[in-house]
Write a structure and sequence with these properties.
CATH architecture of chain A: 3-Layer(aba) Sandwich
Helix content of chain B: over 70%
CATH topology of chain B: ABC transporter involved in vitamin B12 uptake, BtuC
CATH architecture of chain B: Orthogonal Bundle
Strand order of the largest sheet of chain A: 6-7-8-3-9-10
Number of domains of chain A: 1
Shape of chain B: globular
Radius of gyration of chain A: 19 Å
Structural class of chain B: mainly alpha
Shape of chain A: globular
Number of helices of chain B: 15
CATH superfamily of chain A: P-loop containing nucleotide triphosphate hydrolases
Helix content of chain A: 25-40%
Distance between the termini of chain B: 37 Å
Order of helices and strands of chain B: HHHHHHHHHHHHHHH
CATH topology of chain A: Rossmann fold
Distance between the termini of chain A: 28 Å
Oligomer: heterodimer
Structural class of chain A: alpha/beta
Strand content of chain B: under 5%
Number of strands of chain A: 10
Number of strands of chain B: 0
Chain lengths: 256, 350
């Protein structure tokens, strides 16, 4: 499973990744690959290690052991900034949006355009933000509104659009549908489908409710107790099979 | 194919609270919105209203001499409040700025009279010493993870104690060598006001038009999110602690020159008075203690309102005793307004 063919290096590969926090082992031995332009669902119950894996992949945590390969080359992610400079960007559950700031300031958060006087180039940022959101088909009242005024789906869309704008090649979406209504969720799934159609980014969607994300994903990986225990193309599996696996695992863990 | 369909559907007909607002609000509605949106507008009206009220009751309120008084009762607190706003916006508070305010002129005095430092260098040195105290505050809060309320409470007494010990709690005269600078640094009629306006304008631009300001808002508004976006929130906080203490030191020096004496009780017995006035000014000016929002211009107007009240009561012959009643009510009312106007704004004004 972890032999990487030299000819078609995946966009992202993870080999024997382990991470512990004190006495707690969050990740035991994770092997994972994400092909170029692929949408991969990383599912697993609460506490399976999804968040830890995400935080390692985006440069927030360092793994204890294991390798991360980007286009077949090993990288050591030193920080979030560093990971981002390599094209890996995460959209967190909390979205890292600042309610008090406008949409366009959020779009440019920590990547603001400044003029020669070191003052913010608001007009440029506003224009680019509007163009980019239009291009991605994200519809909001205005880029001038504070993010607090937007709906959950719109906020998520802004966060995704921000990552895409920052030229992310690998997008990590952390529970993009959590706490979201059906319509809102559809908005995000359409956005992901749209990105997939363009083929410029590879996406990992982290979700505990795999049924919701099943249709947009090319492949599903199941993370259980810090290991990937299941890896199939969505075409070859079903929501039912996944459910059986999770339930079975739950029964087993309760029996011991 | 799917691109175009997605474009048509995404966010198209969402019922969420942020769906496109009605496009044709009435003119009154617009005026009201503009009023609500500009945090400073409310407090500006109050400031003008008070001005007219006291002027109507006593013409001397707008006399040259009293305007100078007003400016001098506003400026030092507005300068301190400028720093306080930056700190509150990034989610921290500095209780120690008042004792830095009293320590700074003593440091200047020690440097000039005991070590023969050039007065202008001594002034800069005292402000830098203020920055160092701010750095200490910041490091204690950010690195040692002590809540800023507690960290700066400790610093308040520590700095106050250093000042009292080194000065033996005796007032000192402005160093003779520095007297030539007195006019520039607070003694001339409008000197404090001019410094205040420069500082307020500068930091207003910093807060609203610079990356530093944006990151300050982000740090206070969503600390985790800001750091996830790669903002070094610790650095932002430490920087703002340094700004606040430096401004406190500078305001202390201006006040010492203005009253022409270096007084160990300039900040009250507990060293807290200037800080309390500055925080009041910031809050009245529309800064939320929860972080994420605030304006420097609002704090200046808040300081002006407080000065008007203090000065006006005095002038129309009302005892100073009810002043605190008014001040207390003003703080509570402006906080209530803040909370609810913000909610109104957030609700998309429908």
């Amino acid at each position: 499973m972890n032999t990487v063919p030299v000819t078609t290096a995946p966009a992202l590969a993870v080999e024997h990744l382990a991470k512990g926090f004190g006495a707690v082992t969050a990740l035991r031995d994770v092997n994972l690959r994400l092909e170029k332009g692929e949408v991969l669902a990383l599912v697993g119950d609460n506490g399976a290690g999804k968040s830890t894996l995400l935080k390692i992949l985006c440069g927030f945590h360092r793994p204890d052991t294991g390798r991360i390969l980007l286009d077949g080359e090993e990288v050591v992610l030193k920080s979030v900034d560093h990971a981002r400079s390599l094209g890996i960007d995460a959209v967190y559950q909390d979205l890292a949006l600042v309610n008090e700031l406008t949409v366009y300031h959020n779009m440019f958060l920590n990547r603001e355009r400044v003029g020669r006087t070191r003052l913010l180039h608001n007009r440029t940022m506003r224009r680019i933000a509007q163009e980019h959101l239009d291009e991605m088909g994200v519809n909001i009242p205005s880029v001038d509104v504070e993010v607090a005024k937007l709906s959950g789906g719109q906020r998520q869309a802004i966060a995704v659009a921000r990552s895409v704008y920052s030229e992310a090649r690998i997008l990590l979406l952390d529970e993009p549908l959590a706490a979201m209504g059906a319509k809102e969720g559809a908005l995000i799934l359409d956005l992901v489908g749209d990105l997939k159609a363009r083929g410029e980014v590879s996406i990992i969607i982290i979700a505990h409710n795999y049924a919701q994300v099943f249709e947009v994903c090319d492949r599903v990986n199941l993370l259980q107790h810090g290991e990937i225990t299941f890896d199939k193309r969505t075409a070859e599996t079903s929501v039912g099979e996944l459910t059986d696996l999770v339930v079975e695992e739950y029964r087993r863990s309760r029996a011991t | 194919m799917s691109e175009t369909t997605a474009r048509d559907t995404i966010g198209g007909d969402l019922p969420g609270p942020g769906s496109p607002p009605q496009r044709q609000p009435g003119r009154l509605r617009l005026a009201f919105d503009a009023f609500v949106v500009r945090r400073e507008a409310t407090i500006f009206i109050v400031a003008v209203g008070l001005l007219l009220y006291f002027w109507a009751n006593n013409e001397d309120f707008l006399s040259h001499n009293n305007l100078v008084n007003l400016s001098q009762q506003t400026a030092p607190y507005a300068i301190i409040a400028t720093g306080v706003v930056l700190l509150l916006v990034c989610g921290e508070i500095d209780l120690s700025v008042g004792s830095v305010f009293v320590l700074a002129p003593f440091l200047m005095h020690y440097m000039v009279d005991f070590y023969g430092v050039y007065p202008i260098v001594a002034i800069i040195g005292s402000v830098l010493a203020g920055a160092a105290i701010g750095l200490a505050n910041g490091l204690i809060v950010v690195v040692l993870r002590v809540p800023s309320f507690v960290a700066t409470l400790g610093m308040l007494f520590l700095v106050l104690g250093i000042m009292l010990t080194t000065s033996h709690a005796y007032p000192a005269a402005i160093p003779e060598a520095a007297e030539g600078l007195a006019g520039w640094f607070g003694q001339a009629d409008w000197s404090e006001l001019i410094w205040c306006l420069i500082i307020v304008a500068f930091f207003h631009i910093v807060l609203t038009r610079s990356r530093w300001g944006l990151h300050t808002v982000a740090t206070g508004g969503n600390p985790l999110g800001a750091s996830e976006a790669g903002i070094r929130t610790g650095r932002i906080k430490i920087g703002n602690f340094m700004v606040t203490s430096s401004l406190g030191a500078f305001a202390g020096i201006l006040e010492a020159f203005r009253v022409n004496s270096i007084d160990p009780s300039a900040a009250g017995a507990d060293g807290a008075a200037p800080m309390l006035v500055a925080v009041s000014a910031a809050v009245i000016g529309g800064t939320a203690l929860a972080g994420g929002s605030g304006t420097v211009v609002g704090a200046l107007l808040g300081a002006l309102v407080l000065a008007e009240l203090r000065n006006g009561f005095n002038l129309i012959g009302i005892s100073a005793n009810p002043f605190n009643i008014i001040l207390g009510l003003a703080i509570i009312i402006s906080m209530v307004l803040n909370v609810h106007l913000t909610r109104l704004r957030r609700a998309g004004r429908r």
